[in-house]
Design brief:
heterodimer; A: five-stranded antiparallel beta sheet; B: four-stranded antiparallel beta sheet; 0% helix; 50% strand
Chain lengths: 110, 113
């Protein structure tokens, strides 16, 4: 059974701080990694995708991938109350469906 | 451009009735996915289509669930003889190919009384 694990949270950070969200996966052949944001009552929205080891930055968001450790993370700089949501990690391997983690609930406190 | 659309947005049905949920993917997207999300839970994979064929049906919870896709576009998810445990939000997503990012529709909230 291929698994994706995340801390369920809630993760609380003060406004302006860096929020760090972590994800581990079990399938070593996984190739594609995604972070989605889901507001309460809404559908998931793609934030970042990452395919190779290292960091990928997009505005206030940075995704980090370490395939050797089977670990992917999302950093949110200068966190805003509007960032409060559940963040889903998704992993895709060869010829397989996506596997989503359970999500981490982030709360940014004003 | 237009995103993924789903209909109906809400469906209330009585136990034992059949329901049909529809997904219209982003134009040109060849892969289409169905997920289920119960209240406060993560995404549960149901089925995906590459074109009109479904290489992976492993997530369908029972034989009461079926899905089809015609013309490489619209897909319908059918639940026969609905049960209360089928109550959830059913999400559809599409992508350009099976390896790239998925984009989600707004979902259909199904309530089985």
């Amino acid at each position: 059974q291929k698994e994706v694990e995340q801390n369920s949270g809630p993760l609380s950070v003060p406004e302006g701080a860096i929020a760090s969200l972590n994800c581990t996966y079990s399938d070593r052949v996984s190739q594609s990694f995604f972070w989605y944001r889901q507001y309460s009552g809404k559908s998931p929205e793609l934030i970042m995708s990452i395919y190779s080891n290292g960091d990928k930055e997009d505005g206030r968001f940075t995704a980090q991938l370490n395939k050797a450790s089977q670990y992917v993370s999302l950093l949110i700089r200068d966190s805003q109350p509007s960032d409060s949501a559940t963040y889903l990690c998704a992993v895709k391997g060869y010829g397989q469906n996506f596997v989503f983690g359970p999500g981490t609930r982030l709360s940014v406190l004003p | 451009g237009a995103g993924v659309s789903q209909s109906p947005s809400n469906k209330v049905t009585e136990k034992g009735k059949d329901v049909e949920l529809r997904c219209d993917p982003i134009s040109g997207h060849t892969a289409l996915y169905w997920y289920r999300q119960s209240l406060g839970q993560g995404l549960e994979f149901l089925i995906y289509f590459q074109g009109n064929s479904a290489p992976d049906k492993s997530g369908l919870p029972s034989d009461r669930f079926s899905a089809e896709r015609t013309g490489g576009s619209v897909s319908t998810l059918t639940i026969q003889r609905t049960q209360q445990e089928d109550s959830a939000v059913y999400l559809c997503a599409s992508s350009e190919e099976t390896k790239s990012e998925q984009f989600f529709g707004p979902g259909t909230r199904l309530t089985v009384l």
